[in-house]
């Protein structure tokens, strides 16, 4: 059995770019070791909520290396080797789904709505099964559309955009939209008049159309 120390040494070699064929095989074996835990979590999600998860049983080698080089983190500390995503309509639903999953899976919660990562907002539910961490991203539709827009910009304009870099003008656009999404979703949780609720719904629909069109037209 491969030890945590061996896996972390592998992570150091991946970070430094000094990788052998044996290292590639070891990483593939480590990635595949999450499959059973991933399937367990997917089954639990389907039993607990009405939203179907999408995801991947193993993070790609390129994504793993990029994260190791970008962050001071050990390979065994990486919580998203395997993971899935749930996209829900609104923030109230997001809160309920997170509570259900946390209770069902005994999971840890990372709320990136309170502390956004370069504009990225979501709630990450980290479930641990047989010592394997599985990340469940729970996003509202608006949070998801923002993330897709950011991904497309990183592909078309500059990969650094996802991590707080890139052209300042695009950075301001992304940050501004993220803050608007947060304000709209905060209003959705408040007790307001029927008329005010209709206004909020209209703004949400406009944001959705704008983000979809912006992503499509890039």
Describe it for me?
The structure is a single chain. With 218 residues, this protein is an alpha+beta fold. It has 8 helices and 5 strands; from the N terminus they run αααβαβαβββααα. It has a 5-stranded mixed sheet with strand order 1-2-5-4-3. Helix 1 (4-16) crosses helix 4 (61-70), helix 6 (141-156) packs antiparallel against helix 7 and helix 6 runs parallel beside helix 8 (194-217). The protein is globular. The N and C termini lie far apart (47 Å). The mean pLDDT is 94.
Task: List descriptors.
5 strands, single chain, 8 helices, 57% helix, 218 residues, five-stranded mixed beta sheet, alpha+beta
Please outline what is shown here.
This protein is an alpha+beta fold.
What's the order of the H and E elements? HHHEHEHEEEHHH
Q: Give the N-terminus to C-terminus distance in angstroms.
A: 47 Å
**Structural class by helix and strand composition:** alpha+beta
Can you count the helices? 8
What is this structure's SSE topology?
Blueprint: H1 4-16, H2 21-32, H3 35-48, E1 54-56, H4 61-70, E2 82-88, H5 91-105, E3 108-111, E4 123-129, E5 132-140, H6 141-156, H7 168-188, H8 194-217
């Amino acid at each position: 059995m491969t030890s945590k120390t061996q896996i972390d040494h592998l992570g150091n070699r991946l970070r430094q770019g000094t990788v052998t064929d044996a290292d590639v095989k070891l990483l593939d074996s480590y990635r595949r070791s999450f499959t059973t835990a991933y399937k367990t979590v997917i089954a639990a999600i389907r039993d607990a909520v009405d939203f179907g998860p999408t995801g991947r049983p193993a993070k790609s080698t390129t994504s793993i290396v990029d994260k190791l080089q970008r962050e001071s983190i050990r390979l065994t500390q990486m919580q998203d080797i395997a993971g899935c995503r749930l996209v829900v309509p609104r923030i109230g639903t997001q809160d309920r789904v997170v509570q259900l999953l946390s209770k069902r899976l005994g999971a840890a919660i990372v709320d990136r709505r309170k502390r956004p990562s370069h504009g990225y907002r979501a709630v990450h539910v980290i479930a641990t099964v047989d010592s394997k961490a599985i990340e469940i991203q729970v996003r509202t539709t608006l949070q998801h559309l923002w993330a897709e827009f950011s991904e497309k910009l990183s592909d078309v304009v500059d990969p650094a955009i996802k991590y707080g870099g890139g052209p300042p003008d695009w950075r301001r656009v992304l940050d501004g939209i993220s803050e608007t999404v947060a304000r709209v979703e905060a209003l959705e949780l408040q007790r307001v008049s029927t008329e005010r609720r209709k206004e909020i719904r209209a703004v949400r629909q406009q944001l959705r159309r704008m983000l979809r069109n912006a992503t499509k037209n890039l």
